[in-house]
Each structure stands twice: as structure tokens, then as C-alpha cells.
Design goal:
This protein is mainly β. Helix content is about 0%, strand content about 50%. Strands 2-10-9-4-5-6 form a six-stranded mixed β-sheet, with no helix packed on it. Strands 1-3-8-7 form a four-stranded antiparallel β-sheet, with no helix packed on it. The mean pLDDT is about 95.
Length: about 110
């Protein structure tokens, strides 16, 4: 199992920004598609964005134009820059592989107040 540690969450007002980070314990991170997921209270976990090893990205419609996913393979780190946050972005955010079975980290809580 690859350990993934998320950080950067917090409480922010609507319209604000946060930058999440995800650090992987193994270099296998560098050759795999990685994704940011989120789970809002009472809802299922959903994929928000993903990025290939080469940097190709994809986003769900709800965050397009506001969120930017990126990665630094040398640092085994992935980022999610979240701008113009909305209350509906409130959730616990997780990172994980898209195509590998791996345990989930503790996530990082994002709370967006109206």
C-alpha cells in the first residue's frame, strides 16, 4: 500500500481559495494517474479531478474553471488549487490512484461558509 497524506484544508468564506497537497510515500506515484476525490456529508465519495503522469487533466463540470490540479513527480506530490470556492464544495478531500487499489488517507476537511 502507498501511503497518501493530504493537507491544506480549512475554513474559508465563499469566494476564497485553498491549495490542497497530497504527498505519496512511494515513487510509483510518478507513473500513475492520480485523482482528487471529495465526500460531502451524507453523500458518496466522488472524483473531482484527475491528472495523468504526463500532466493531462480532467475535471467534473462543477469545478471547471475554478479548480486546477497539478503534480510534481520529483516530489511525489499532487496539488489542487481551489479558487472561487462555494459552500457546495464543503467536503473531506482525498487523493488516490485512479486505476490502482489503494487504501484511503485521512483526507483534509474543507469548509466553505456562505
Amino acid at each position: 500500500q502507498v501511503q497518501l497524506v493530504e493537507s491544506g484544508g480549512g475554513l474559508v468564506q465563499a469566494g476564497g481559495s485553498l491549495r490542497l497537497s497530497c504527498v505519496a510515500s512511494e515513487t510509483i506515484f510518478s507513473i500513475n494517474v492520480m485523482g482528487w476525490y471529495r465526500q460531502a456529508p451524507g453523500k458518496q465519495r466522488e472524483l473531482v479531478a484527475y491528472i495523468t503522469s504526463g500532466g493531462t487533466t480532467s475535471y467534473i463540470e462543477a469545478v471547471k474553471g475554478r479548480f486546477t490540479i497539478s503534480r510534481d513527480n520529483a516530489k511525489r506530490t499532487m496539488y489542487l488549487q481551489m479558487n472561487r470556492l462555494k459552500p457546495e464544495d464543503t467536503a473531506v478531500y482525498y487523493c488516490n490512484f485512479l486505476h490502482l487499489t489503494n487504501s484511503w488517507g485521512q483526507g483534509t476537511q474543507v469548509i466553505v461558509s456562505p
